[in-house]
Amino acid sequence: MQVDLNNFRETFFQEAAEHLAEMEAGLLRLDQGSFDAELLNAIFRDAHSVKGASGMFGLDDVSGFTHALESLLDRLRSGEIRVTQKLTDLLLQATDLLRELLAAAESGAPAPERMAGVLQELYVAQRSPASTSGASPRIRKSDREPAPSGKTAYQVRFRPSAEIFSQGMDPLLILRDLARLGEAVTTEVDVQGLPALASMDPEQCYLAWNVRLETSNTVGEIRDIFAFVEDNAEIRVDAEELKTSTTAAPSAANMAPAAPRDASIRVATSKVDKLVDLVGELVIAQSMAREIVHNFSSARLAELQEAIAQMERHTRELQERVMSVRMLPIGHIFGRFPRLVRDISAQLSKNVRLELAGEETELDKGVVEQMGDPLTHLIRNAIDHGIETAEERVEKGKPEQGLIRLEAYHQAGSVIVELSDDGRGLDSERIRRKALERGLIAEADAFTDAQMYNLIFSPGFSTAEQVSDLSGRGVGMDVVRRNVESLNGSLSVTTQPGRGTKVRIQLPLTLAILDGLSVRVGRETYLLPLVSISESIRPRREQVKTLVGRGEAVMVRGEALPLIRLHGLFGIPTEVIDPCRGLTVIVEHAGRSFALLVDELLGQQQVVIKSLEAHYRKVEGVLGATILGDGRAALILDVAGLAQIARHPAGGGLAA
Amino acid sequence: MQEVEKTGYTADVNQFLTFTLGAEEYGIEILKVQEIKGYSAITHIPNAPPHVKGVMNLRGTVVPVVDLRTKFSMDAVEYTKFTVIIVVMVGDKIAGLVVDAVSDVLNIASSDVRPAPDLGARCDTRFISGVVSIGDKLAVLLDIDKLLTEEEVATAA
């Protein structure tokens, strides 16, 4: 019987990754609390699932290793061994290795070399307090590193229980795995249990096998083959004396390298069902509309309008639902941060607690995945630069344990991710000094504090007095900004000296669709991303000022905002030259606002983002293109880019 | 001077789509042509070279449109509903070429193609792959890859 398991491989790896993530999360909670049987059970179950499934896929490295891990967990949950910091560290290390093993198995690469070491440690830890009988397998080396002594012969007896098929097991697969370990010299089928044909239940297993196996593997490794069925079978492995043979044993499982897999999404069936329903309704609405058009008379106009309105509703809902298929809870990446905080704070000998909120906030898969790195960086920075050492904190009258809070929530069609710490805050004077030193600003430049703080996102900026291993090389924050901006998001930082810093990231719900404001300049229509717009005004005459050598500015509530004439910037002929006759849209980028002069506002609309680069090239100040309702192409403006080109000719202080 | 055959096919005969710009006749390899479409609304691209008229919507894809008249420093003409856009594929990029009118599809033997005359420094002949006589006229065969790749994509920045 040949079962093609490849179809399930992808699901297996996906699920294994989930189990691992849960194990890790569990272990981290374990770290903070005392003995918790429920939690230990949950961790054990995760390990057990990985072991079982990997055994089925012939991933011997994985199942063997997980078996060792599981044995240790088993003794932990039974209370035989106490949870210690050292043990948690080891278990976390083991989950890391397991992750590597899975990745290696997926790509067909050999197991990482340090596996043998970790495996050894797992067994040592297991035996540590009171060594018990040899019931648990003893694995000394990975099966990829055959014992130097050569081969041993074993008598292996395998009698599966009669119900084994109903548990989804196939003894044949197990025998095949067994044969891979070495050379199955003789294999005997024991048919004693076989009843008469008339009384035989075809769904039951009546057979048993005796295999004489020559292998360089240990008893434990042989037993691992049966890891998944050991509760449902009688298994005996006895070593025989054998003259050592010279040839090395063949290596185990030769999994074919996994084909490059397409990124896939797992979608709840209910979501798909809803989609099918909606498409059905849309089809009905469409056929109704067609019927009306076929037999059209002016009397039926209202009917037609109604039909079209209905189609519009369905289409909009369909759009939302389809988008939601791509949505993932941001907890997907939040999950890895407790570990990160634990590791980094240990490394920096700081005491930091991470608080998470809003993990269930859903975002486009692409956005979620790309937020991992920037957030990692920000957290690293917060621990390294933000949070003080315990002594320093006590001195300042703060709780000894630093707090980092990561929160996500929805706000007006976008998602806000906030990372705050209760550390020392940013020092605007130091930032200013540093920026001057790095030539990022000129001596004469006047900045508000908010603008000053945002300088930390400039390339080549770092205020850490000491460049540490983790951060402070000045390559971080501008990369964070670039990452966020490449997702059409924006970010800003606020701080209270001595009280903490908060980085606020605003992200669009999805990458494919943008909420935009369409504006007209001359005969052209442009779209501005709604996220970056704060307001639009028609300035009064006295609000428009000309600053010598600095271009024009619009005074809004006492602040002078640079005026950018879109028609001038893009070279579009228009009649509206006077800002007091057109409209200025106040847009914000990186804490700086400026006023864009346009002829008029056309309205707010959702547009699908099309690439301009696909057939042309990147255009400065343009994010992409879109198709308008009338079939024309229109450009979507990139506020960050506009700010740059507008600043560039003026020779302003801030380098791009 | 031989008359170009309109029928028949041999190994070194290539098909060319010919079109006019003013009084002049041009040809491009037909394999590069994806389609010919009527004039459609063009959206201006800021700070693009003058011959890049903008982008248009080609069934949901946004593709740049190049005006060959401007490109060849000829007088610009008003676009009308008779203005034609030849959609060409260069590598994996698509572009539209605005021309006055499409004339014909011709089989041209490579032996009939003569190298472009050296017109001196005043005229850029890099993207001319040769000239061929068609009746009493001379058609200029364009190397569309060079014309678009070098000019638009690489150096237009």
Summarize the structure in short:
The complex is a heterodimer of chains A (656) and B (157). With 656 residues, chain A is an alpha+beta fold.
Features:
heterodimer; A: 656 residues; alpha+beta; Four Helix Bundle (Hemerythrin (Met), subunit A); Alpha-Beta Plaits; 5 domains; six-stranded mixed β-sheet; five-stranded mixed β-sheet; 18 helices; 22 strands; 39% helix; flat; disordered C terminus; B: 157 residues; mainly beta; OB fold (Dihydrolipoamide Acetyltransferase, E2P); 10% helix; globular
Describe this structure in words.
The complex is a heterodimer of chains A (656) and B (157). Chain A has 656 residues and is of the alpha+beta class. Chain A has five domains: 6-127, HPT domain (Four Helix Bundle (Hemerythrin (Met), subunit A), Up-down Bundle), CATH 1.20.120.160; 152-240, Alpha-Beta Plaits (2-Layer Sandwich), CATH 3.30.70; 269-325; 329-508, 2-Layer Sandwich (Heat Shock Protein 90); 513-650, SH3 type barrels (Roll), CATH 2.30.30. Chain A has helices at residues 6-32, 37-56, 60-77, 85-107, 115-127, 171-181, 219-225, 269-294, 301-325, 331-334, 337-347, 365-386, 390-395, 428-437, 449-454, 477-486, 566-570, 639-650, and strands at residues 152-160, 183-190, 208-215, 233-240, 327-329, 352-357, 362-364, 402-411, 414-421, 490-496, 500-508, 513-521, 524-529, 533-537, 544-547, 551-556, 559-565, 583-589, 592-598, 600-608, 622-627, 633-637. Chain B is 10% helix and 45% strand. Chain B has a five-stranded mixed beta sheet with strand order 8-1-2-10-9, with no helix packed on it. A five-stranded mixed beta sheet of chain B has the order 3-6-7-5-4. The radius of gyration of chain B is 16 Å and the shape is globular. Residues 152-157 of chain B have low confidence and may be disordered. The A-B interface holds A 524-525, 569-572, 610-612, 614-617, 619-622, 625, 627, 631-635 and B 40-41, 43-48, 52, 54-57, 60-64, 93-95, 152-153, 156-157.
